[in-house]
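[audit] Reproducing an earlier prediction to check determinism. Same input, same settings, fresh worker. If the tokens differ from the archived copy the diff job will pick it up downstream; this log only records the rerun itself.
[audit] input (280 residues):
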Amino acid sequence: AEKYFQVALASGGDDRADSRTYNILIRAASRAGRPEGAQDYLAAMEYRGVDPSPHTYTAVVLAAAHSGEVAAAEGLLGEMAARFALPPDRHTFHALLKAYADRGLWEKAVAALRAMAVQGLRPDAYAYAIALDACANARNLPAARELWDEMRSPEGGNVTRPSVVAYNTLIKAAVRAGRTGEAHAVLAAMPGEGVPPDTTSFTTVMGAYASSGAPEDRAPVERLFHEMALRGAPPGRVTYHTLMKACVRRGEYRKALRYLRRMGSSGGDGEGGGGAGAGD
């Protein structure tokens, strides 16, 4: 995308470039891991008299977030309001929250949720899931619990139904805090809440049991594996690796080999982790 744009510039064809063109270039720079390129295109828009849109700033903030440039992401959010009178939209806040979550900056993530409400944007399930991920990465389970209760609170009539990603992130927070039993309880509650657990849900809890030094914590790994089949959650490679790890720790090498063969025959291509609440 950048190559063709440079050709257009050289031939004088940039006069037709509008905000959508620049947005595409900014997203391309972001995906290429070049946040400085994204910001250069933003500066080029101003130089050529092309007004940025909220989508433009969302793309630049996301580029900074992917590179861990938290201060740059915050500055861009302030700039869009101060210089262009552009209110950040839901997607812009999601991008900023992602920057905080990746660094475990849970207090800033909670503040961003509050800022969304001030802007008249009710935090959605995805925003809460990213903020929960910030708590999980900070290993702050109490803060994650508070956000979880807030999300489900009927206060003001604004109940946000947790998504499977939000549930997975709460499971991740419990696992990282060393509370495997609590993580399992969250998993067990999901069907009753109308949210079917997915591969990530099961694999994260299985991983916690498999990594435990307690012998009694290894048996639940296989039980959860069989429950996955009953729930229609396909096991992924990480799931099989976790299962084999538990078998090896129990000295059940033949069983581990059987699971290895089963993984090969099934392909083992299901998601073993992903989303805001992916387990490590």
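[audit] rerun output stored. Observation attached for the diff report: Confidence is low (pLDDT under 50) at residues 7-11.
[audit] end
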